[in-house]
Amino acid sequence: MTQQYYVVQGKQLNGITSGATYGDDVQAGTNFPLVRIVNGATKHVFYARTSGFSTRSVAPKVASSATFQVPAAGLIETGPSSLYVVANGVPSKPVAVTVN
User: Fold this and answer.
1) Total structural domains in the chain?
2) In whole angstroms, how far apart are CA 8 and each of 21, 22, 41, 56?
3) Residue range of the domain that includes 61
4) Is the distance from CB of 30 to CB of 15 less than 8 angstroms?
5) pLDDT digit string, tens, across residues 17-60
6) CA within 20 to 30 Å of 44's CA: 19, 37, 72, 79, which one?
7) Dist. CA 22–CA 20, nearest whole Å
């Protein structure tokens, strides 16, 4: 079965900080969106891989988009779910989706 790709769009998808650096050995970037899917029946949490960011800006209220890949069949539970975009640990309001 082919994995599905979708696009999320909004403001502040990259959060408000780019993370932390420590000398030349640690680069802990956090300025990218995560997609979290919570199954409505079981409340189990799944994450979708994000890529293709239109910007990595952390300026306030900047519009951006990203592509996300829904986990393959058998790696995510199907049915009514809630989708959140998470930036720097702060989730968006949920959007109702159905995972097939």
Assistant:
1) 1
2) 28, 31, 24, 14
3) 5-99
4) yes
5) 776 766 677 776 667 789 999 999 999 999 999 998 888 777 77
6) 19
7) 7
